[in-house]
Amino acid sequence: MPLIVDNTVPTPILVRPVDYGADIIVHSLTKFMGGHGTTLGGIVVDCGTFSWTDNAGPLPMFTQPDESYHGLVYIKHYGAPPSSAAALACTSAPMGAVLSPMNAFLLLQGIETVALRVERHVENARKVGRIPPGAFASRVGEFRGLHGQPLLSAGAEVPGRKACSLMTFEIRGGLKAGMRFYNALKLFKRLVNLGDAKSLACHPASTTHRQMTPEEQLAAGVAPGAFA
Questions:
Q1: pLDDT band at 73, cuts 50/70/90?
Q2: If we measure between CA atoms, which residue out of 73, 75, 69 comes closest to residue 89?
Q3: Which candidate, 28, 26, 25, places its Cα nearest to that of 193?
Q4: pLDDT at 141
């Protein structure tokens, strides 16, 4: 099976998954890559490292005729790699999932500065991460790579790798305390569009995962007072 890696948070500036065996890389361009949060978009990068013809059995959609697309055989029509072309073909015609010229321009304009922005994101996050946990009443403060904290096991094997600017911490007192903290924020925006021009904070238990029961939240790794 092909290895698919979501590299939205690290971006290619901090880690290149293709160097470590990834076959397909996906990004939400609305985040760090775009850098401004004005445009919804994404990208699929087929690295050309996976043999679709040798693995046609379990993955027939790329090697067999697609009757919904006039019997097109993607590997024959597009050659290798076919997955990104197939993703576009399968979504553009039936659903219209195609960027408008203006949105494409906005995303490309953001990508032009991604190297500098990610560098500054990491620098700023390291400064915030040095604040003693007790200063904001957190139970757990985590920022990989700060003051000797180990990087994630996979990242630790990457020479010179820097931790990304996404940090997590947990407020004492659970859900209610987390909500009070969240509602009291002034400088940080209460949004989930990480990696753009604003400093953002997210309290998943009361926002993105609020529809879940407490048991379902814990099963999904969402603690009541956890922030990102």
A1: confident
A2: 69
A3: 28
A4: 46
Containing 133, the helix (H) or strand (E) segment is none
Place of tokens 């956890």: 226
Residues 55 and 1: their CA atoms lie apart, in Å, by 8
From CA 4, how far away is CA 199, in angstroms rounded? 29
Task: Report, in angstroms and rounded to the nearest whole number, the Rg of the chain calculated over CA atoms.
Answer: 21
Phi, psi of 106 (to 5 degrees): -65, -40
Helix (DSSP H) and strand (DSSP E) numbers for the chain: 7, 8
pTM of the model: 0.79
42 to each of 45, 118, 124, how far by Cα in Å? 10, 18, 26
Q: Which residues pair with 213 in a beta bridge?
A: none
Geometric angle at alpha carbon 226, from 119 and 8, rounded to 5°: 35
Please tell me the distance from the alpha carbon of residue 171 to that of residue 184, in angstroms, as a whole number: 13
Q: How many CB atoms lie within 10 A of CB 173?
A: 15
